[in-house]
């Protein structure tokens, strides 16, 4: 009798456990960013604001649909990033900023939270969607990061079509380069703080690195980041976006992060990994960990930017220490939420 009782209670508990697991597994979410910086309502026309909002929502929904249908978080982050890479509004793919020499050099990286597999490309000039190439590096090569001409040879060997570097030309970004160069010349600091020079330009011309983090129904996290880097960069400068642990990080046991901002700081402070380490080792929430790193570590030393963070329970943090960050999130069963300016 007693053992029958035990079996009954045991099965009941199993049943409840399975339900809880199912509920947890049904939890899915996606968050995106389209760059952080001096983004103010006063410096943006209503038309431009509407265009940004619409594109952010389109990117969010592209990823959300995949998650909703039970697809993988890796597919969701790539789909979201592709929408923004294909838009001239963002500093990634089509709308990439110019280098000092008047060309475009693109960086991207992706990470799989299941197993810490990662792929990255840096300084590519002829690939329309660098995030897809980063994924190929992860899934179809023994390497993590490929740069420049070598990355393009790899792309060709995998059948990726090459595009002319001029594909990424846009009038707005060209004007931004001219202004940045003028500012650098005026201050005679070509080799010095070009971010400060670029920051002196009117918003929103200089922003727009893109990124996405997602949690799928199987409980897997992924993160992706893609960028044209910083206006007037030179000498093959590479920022944080293609660096695993700096601009991108994902591990199912802690969190997924995509960053945007002044890359040199994000590299030196290992920002994306630091946030997830605080979650893993200190039991911090993603909101607390992101706030500590962005506002308490980076802000005092002048490191401007922001992050989107997501954990395996579906908790989301969209944290930045700048005036604004193009951003959005959508959790299972919820409507998409997009925002641009600070709180
Ligand atoms: N993090 C990018 C870089 O340093 C730029 C940005 O996000 O605005 O290349």
TrEMBL record:
Q: Mind telling me which Pfam families this protein's record contains?
A: Asparaginase_2 (PF01112)
Residues folding into a coiled coil are 167-197
Output the superkingdom of the source species: Bacteria
CDD domains, per the entry: Asparaginase_2 (cd04701)
Keywords per UniProt: Coiled coil, Signal
Q: Where is the signal peptide?
A: 1-20
UniProt cross-references to PANTHER family, sorted A to Z: L-ASPARAGINASE, N(4)-(BETA-N-ACETYLGLUCOSAMINYL)-L-ASPARAGINASE
Protein name as catalogued: Isoaspartyl peptidase/L-asparaginase
Organism of derivation? Microbulbifer salipaludis
């Amino acid at each position: 009798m007693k053992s029958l009782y035990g079996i009954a209670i045991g099965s009941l508990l199993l049943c409840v456990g399975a339900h809880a697991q199912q509920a947890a597994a049904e939890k899915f979410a996606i968050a995106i960013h389209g760059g952080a910086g001096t983004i103010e309502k006063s410096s943006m026309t209503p038309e431009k604001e509407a265009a940004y909002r619409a594109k952010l929502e389109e990117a969010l929904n592209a990823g959300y649909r995949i998650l909703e249908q039970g697809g993988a978080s890796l597919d969701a982050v790539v789909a979201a990033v592709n929408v923004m890479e294909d838009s001239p509004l963002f500093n990634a793919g089509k709308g990439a900023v110019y280098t000092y020499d008047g060309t475009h050099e693109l960086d991207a990286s992706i990470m799989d939270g299941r197993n810490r597999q990662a792929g990255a490309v840096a300084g590519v000039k002829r690939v329309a969607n660098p995030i897809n190439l980063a994924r190929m590096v992860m899934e179809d090569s023994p390497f993590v990061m490929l740069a420049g001409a070598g990355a393009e040879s790899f792309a060709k060997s995998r059948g990726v079509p090459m595009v002319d570097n001029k594909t990424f030309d846009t009038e707005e970004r060209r004007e931004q380069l001219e202004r940045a160069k003028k500012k650098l010349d005026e201050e005679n600091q070509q080799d010095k703080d070009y971010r400060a020079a670029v920051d002196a330009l009117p918003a929103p011309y200089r922003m727009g690195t893109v990124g996405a983090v997602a949690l799928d129904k199987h409980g897997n996290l992924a993160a992706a980041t893609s960028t044209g880097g910083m206006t007037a960069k030179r000498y093959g400068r590479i920022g944080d976006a293609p660096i695993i642990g700096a601009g991108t990080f994902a591990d199912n046991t802690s969190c997924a992060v995509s960053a945007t901002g002044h890359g040199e700081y994000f590299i030196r402070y290992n920002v994306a990994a630091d946030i997830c380490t605080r979650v893993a080792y200190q039991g911090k929430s993603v909101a607390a960990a992101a706030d500590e790193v962005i506002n308490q570590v980076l802000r005092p030393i002048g490191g401007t930017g922001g992050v989107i963070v997501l954990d395996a329970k579906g908790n989301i943090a969209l944290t930045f220490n700048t005036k604004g960050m193009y951003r959005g999130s959508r959790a299972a069963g919820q409507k998409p939420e997009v925002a641009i300016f600070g709180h």
